[in-house]
Give the backbone structure.
Amino acid sequence: MLAVLSPGQGSQKPGFLLPWLDLTGSEARLRSWSELAGVDLVHLGTEADAEEIKDTARTQPLLVAAALLAAEHLPMDEVTVTAGHSVGELGAAALAGVLSPETAITLAGVRGREMAAACALEPTGMAALLGGDPDEVLAAIEAAGLHPANRNGAGQVVAAGAITGLEQLAATPPAKTRVIRLQVAGAFHTPYMAPAEKALAVVAAEITPTDPVRTLLSNLDGSAVGHGPDVIQRLVHQVTAPVRWDLCMRTLADLGVTAVLELPPAGSLAGLVKRELKGPGLPEIVTLNTPDDLPAARDLIARHGNASDRQSTTEVDA
């Protein structure tokens, strides 16, 4: 069983889409999506520097576009499970058939702009806590008046909230814990993003989704969501709700996923899976970053996708 993962903000790198423009139709596709997103995706993915693509309003549609662009070159009909981290959920929802690519790009543009606007209302930020006792880490975050915005598993929790709270946490970290301030615009996935959630809900209300055609995992609780309107509701609420990537990975293990393919810009989610799902149950992992990685990605799908399952069943029946 194979899962395709779509990464979230922070995974972008300058020029990471440049090699994809060599594929026929890719530049035209990005220019079309740029009109929907309200940003120049070709420039952002090829020429923009690290500072420019750090801008939330630009980064979010860029990441969704990258995942969907790469997925067009894969046999997605053979994929069983999809999941995305934070804004990557929009890409995953499109790959699961809930949204069209155009709708996912449009929502990513709105989400990015509105979250950037919410960040500007007051000074907030985020910090990653690595290591330590999980209960002590969560208690320290609460004591500092912060929120556990991302629970990523593998000994990684991201705290978010007021700058003063982040400074307090850095000054008195939990035992055996390293605190790293993140270069982000504000406290994503916390109540500070309430204005963005409200704005996104207005746009999402005009969407008519379809039910997923493959298993789609939710950041809210790691569960598989089978009803299109429920997916939309969760995507909107996720703007202020914590990302429970730890629970998504637990579900990957419970489902018996044997292989993971991370879409571009790949690496961060593959690393979390590798550190969390250790031992004999570790899925085979392929990261797709450039068109040169497509043969390995297609081979992974051929060996772990639905076609391989059907072939195994046929061999047993024979």
